[in-house]
């Protein structure tokens, strides 16, 4: 639950703002002066600050300067809510590092939209920081899994590239793209539980070997469920072998009941498999692979995602990344 600090010396307006934001599911802390606001900031570490400018003892500009001088206050969104409309006041707010300026009187929707936008920006920044902190480790882990399978070197990087390109074409947001990157890199992590002779077999697998291989989505999902910052990637790992007609595995989900993460990755994963040479068959050409993907509409793949994938690749006339 996002925590918001409201700094306002008018008790009536303070109560109205608190009620609006609490009704939206936020945890709201309040302060009626600058010094009280700084004490609350130190104690609660809010995700967003809304502050008046004209207040006794310490005005809003001084509060903003003190927050920005704090090591944990540099990235906290800070919005001024003020009746002061002079250009110099707005300019000073920007110069000091304010993220937005809402003029009194304001509408309820205006307040909600501003708060929602700034909280989303903070969430994306935190996700990018998490991405930078964990991406190298995730990539190393994915490469370690791939090293056990001689015939799929580079597979996760290519699948990730295809999946990100398709997700961007579908207008997925920044948060979803970050999670997708982790999910695509780790989608085959469950193969760590598959014996090497099965992974590296030159010919078709027996029924018993397929039964072992088909467990890897569930094994991988179980591994990630215990890691807080990777739990959101579980749908990519668990559902990328499901089929639109319900004949996939491990759950046999059908159509829209398959999470979109699994539906998208299924296309990228299959396309890379088709365009990569294996000991028992050569790689398909780009056009032949796209034709196979198109043939799988309504049976293997989400038809809407297939349309976007085909349009994307045929417009760009691109083959597999090398």
Structural notes for this entry:
This protein is an alpha/beta fold. Helix content is 55%, strand content 7%. It folds into 2 domains: 115 residues, Rossmann fold, CATH 3.40.50.2300; 169 residues, Hypothetical protein af1432 (Orthogonal Bundle), CATH 1.10.3210.10. It has a 5-stranded parallel beta sheet, sandwiched between helices. Helix 5 runs parallel beside helix 7 and helix 6 packs across helix 12. The C terminus is likely disordered.
Supply the key terms:
322 residues, alpha/beta, Rossmann fold, 2 domains, five-stranded parallel β-sheet, 7% strand
Helix content: 40-55%
The CATH superfamily of the largest domain bears the name: Hypothetical protein af1432
Q: What's the gyration radius in Å?
A: 26 Å
**How would you describe the shape?**
elongated
For the residues shown, what is the average pLDDT?
Answer: 87
Question: Multimeric state of these chains?
Answer: single chain
The ordered H/E elements are EHEHEHEHEHHHHHHHHHH
Structural class: alpha/beta
CATH class of the largest domain: Mainly Alpha
Strand order of the largest sheet: 2-1-3-4-5
CATH architecture of the largest domain: Orthogonal Bundle
Report the strand count.
Answer: 5
Residue fraction in strands: 5-15%
Number of separate domains: 2
**How many helices in DSSP terms?**
14
* Uncertain stretches of 5 or more adjacent residues: 318-322
**What does the largest sheet look like?**
5 strands, parallel
Distance between the termini: 43 Å
- CATH topology of the largest domain, by name, is Hypothetical protein af1432
